[in-house]
Amino acid sequence: MNLTPKQLKILQLIRDWRVRRGYSPTMQELADEIGVSKVTVFEHVEALIKKNALVREANKARSLSIADGVSVPDEGRPLRFPLVGRIAAGHPIERVASEEEIDLTEMLAPSASAAATFALKVEGDSMRDEGILDGDYVLVERTQVAANGDRVVALLPDGSTTLKTFFKEDDHIRLQPANPNFEPIRVRFCQVQGIVKGVVRRYGR
Fold it and tell me: Which of 37, 71, 164, 197 is catalytic?
């Protein structure tokens, strides 16, 4: 796909906003980010839609999204993921906003995509028997759908988040720890925010 530097920057910004904040930037916010007029941004967005790189829902604010099958590269940092908070593997805690990032360029295959992936730092050891330890980073693919046995980031009814293994049972959901010292969390409903796709561990910290 033949993109200008400004068009690539717009795609990167839209992707990063959707990963970090869950919604797209407005035209004015895009203009402010890249230092051009709102009219210029509108022209670039229209060109990206014509190139089938962007999708926009009619009559809906903040509706820009990357088209299916479009990979947005990062110049010089292809595997830098936003660190969006800390996740409790012992007890649920509230999600903490963060503008930090972790760079996995040297750790993962260069074909991995950051478009729908974010990172969380694990606190606690309730998932230790799955090899997820206190201080590890988990790479999470953003999705709201999980199958039994998936290790998920789940938003609980009280507004806190936790990292556990997901099981849908007869009349409730069981979020199972991987440590016999912890009891499973049982709720009638929770919102899956993503599925763990990888674990990164630093030594000598």
Answer: 164
Helices (H), strands (E): how many in the chain?
A: 3, 11
Catalytic residue among 113, 126, 160, 197: 126
38 among known catalytic residues? no
Kindly list the structural domains of the chain, giving each domain's residue range(s) and its CATH number in brackets, ordered by start: 5-66 (1.10.10.10), 80-200 (2.10.109.10)
Between 29 and 94, the higher pLDDT residue: 29
Cβ-contact 191, 135 below 8 angstroms: no
Q: What integer pLDDT is reported at residue 130 of this predicted model?
A: 93
End-to-end CA distance of the chain: 42
Distance set, CA 148 to CA 97, 164, 169, 197 (Å) = 28, 11, 9, 15
Which residues neighbour 63 within 8 Å (Cβ) at sequence distance 6 or greater? Answer: 24, 56, 57
Q: Does the reported pTM lie above 0.85?
A: no
- C-alpha 107/C-alpha 122 separation (Å) is 18
126 classed as catalytic: yes
